[in-house]
Amino acid sequence: MINKEKQPNRLINQKSPYLLQHAHNPIDWNPWGEEAFVKAEQENKPVFISIGYSTCHWCHVMERESFEDQGVADLLNKHFVSIKVDGEERPDIDHLYMTYCQALTGAGGWPLTLLLTPQKKPFFAGTYFPRQSQQGRPGLIDILTQTATLWKNEEGKIRKSAQEFQDAVVNHQNKKVKETAQNLLDISSEVKGIEKWAMKVFEDTYKMMEKSFDKQYGGFGNAPKFPSVHSLGFLMRYGENESQHIVEKTLDSMVDGGIYDHIGFGFTRYSTDRYWLVPHFEKMLYDNATIAYAYLEAYQKTRKERYAFTAKEIFEYILRDMSSAEGGFYSAEDADSEGVEGKFYVWSLDEVQKLLKCRLEDKFLHEYLGEYLENNKVLISDTKEKVIEMFCEMYGITREGNYEGNSIPCRLLKNGEMIGRKLGMSFLEIGKIMDYCRNLLFVEREKRIHPFKDDKILMSWNGLMIAALAKGAQVLISDKDSKKYIEQADRAVNFVFDKMCNSEGRFLARFRDGEAEYLAYLDDYAFMIFGLLELYLATGRSKYLDKALGLQEQQERLFGDSKNGGYYFTGSDAEELIIRPKEMYDGAMPSGNSISASNLVKFWKITGEDRWKKLAEQQINAFKADLEEQPFGHTAFLQALQLLISDSEELILAGKLETESMKEMQKTVFGYFKPFLTVVYKEKDTKIPERLNHYSAGEEATAYICKNFACQEPVHTAKELNMIVKSK
After folding, report:
1. Measured between alpha carbons, how far is 555 from 533 in angstroms, rounded to an integer?
2. What is the tally of structural domains in the chain?
3. What is the SS3 assignment for 442-491?
4. Which of 218, 323, 224 is nearest to 281 (CA)?
5. How far is CA 612 from CA 180, 185, 603, 679, in A?
6. In terms of domains, do 667 and 639 share one?
7. What is the pLDDT of residues 466-490, one digit of tens each?
8. CATH value at residue 207
9. DSSP string, 604-636
10. pTM of the predicted structure, to 2 decimals
């Protein structure tokens, strides 16, 4: 980590928190840029590139072991030109070289380690390497020493190998382009042309999920285990009874496990085990946005209160800890504190017992346990001991611990109803007591040294959180916090449009320390459009739809591939790399192409313009081969396909937006899981979408319900609307 006593290197003037973490390494680091490659060419040295991000645990390990080591620094400074890249700040470079790493090794991850020729052509790639070789894993010193020798003695052979490697990767990309072009030749002007192959893809995807589903612990596969929320979204739309069981089992297990921060809320990245117990402790904005969205949809579908509570707790964490004063949302929190992974989050039994004995107030116990104390003729001191025992039992805090001698709070073994029965109390009553105790732990935990917070603001991740908050305002419209969710989402939108857009109207990907930089990528545009469309759905305010359409026009111009379909990851005005990537794999985050597919379908259904329909069909047909070959890796994209071929259901809400009658209409609609229903608003002076001009809009709300281009008689009360929506 940062050691300001050492002489800084060239990274010292960067804004990236990750690059600044390495600004005092003894290595002569360069930021990415032509200057470094010109230097490599002039000095005829290979290029060493290390890509990571500020909250990456193994990036920290590799820094402590190698990048702070003078021996490693001497090797790099003498024989290489070294470059550090923040993969979150420059996802274009990260995606490009991750492609090479996966092609060479069959895997990828961070830190990403590469060796390049001065012409940016890789000849070696991998992830984490220890300083010294051990247990069959090559060490960084051996890799660097051998490379320096080979470059000196067989430079021509290395350059030839790098060229052949690049040709292989480029040819693979060209093959995919040809397949895409062939798919575009088969485009039907009717959605039915897509439906023929889509249904089989859906069925195949479900069978794969069913086969990999962990029936005992939820989720998919073994360990490590990721939330896979895109897959859950697909399953909720698929509609089979067993698919809903998979969703609920997974969501229940996730929120009961240690992957969820039961004391301060929010989800960590993934579970290192099959049981959701031991997390990789870092928290990412994008994870919490997409997970909150999934819990909200599950609440709509099941009406299980715990799903709504989980989403609200996630938002409490985000608004409390991850929101900037200007309105944007920060990126991440580290897994480590004081150099130890998870130290901030774990507890010993003695620590918890001592804290609760000291802080658990008698007046609180009297307030919630008065009847219990009187009926059972017990002393309050005895009851306090019992409450402490129950709290530790409920959250799995034990003498032996579940993580390196300490305990990660979790609810995998016990639940509130079981605990409540022991005290003769309801789930709601015991919940209040447990939450009071939890908050005492939270207040105490706040005194600890916090993990590092990456306070850069990324347009793409903010788009996902805006979408989640807007979804929260829809689903939890009766909740006292729903208005706050809209306000915070709106502030984030204003921040991005005010602070992350240059004088020419081009959006920028990253803001930090008063500066926005790096031309925005596809994900930035696609995710922000997604957020704006959800805000339009939540509020009916046409300004959000207008902004979304404006961004989509810019996306078409900058990123669209009119010849082969789909969208490039980088804009036509961006730095030219060896390959212009076109991503569609749905990993921890959905791909920009996947979300764009959904956005295009929504634009068509909202505006009625065939232009958007044709673009949506082109987008989906362009990736037909990928969807058929590896559907499990594209489940966010499949949701766009599900939306496209669904029956055309539309609800037009006409009237003044701020009336109680409109709010009641919204409450009715958002109370159901209707992912294929298009909701469009018409106020008296609304100009978009233009197709609604012939609908009249008075003071009170009127609902027009249409299906497959046929509309029913309008209804004027939420009760009437509920009868129609409920029956569909």
Report:
1. 15
2. 4
3. HHHHCCCCCCCEECCEEHHHHHHHHHHHHHHHHHCCCCCCHHHHHHHHHH
4. 224
5. 19, 18, 6, 17
6. no
7. 999 999 999 999 889 999 999 999 9
8. 1.50.10.10
9. HHHH--HHHHHHHHHHHHHTHHHHHH-GGGGHH
10. 0.90
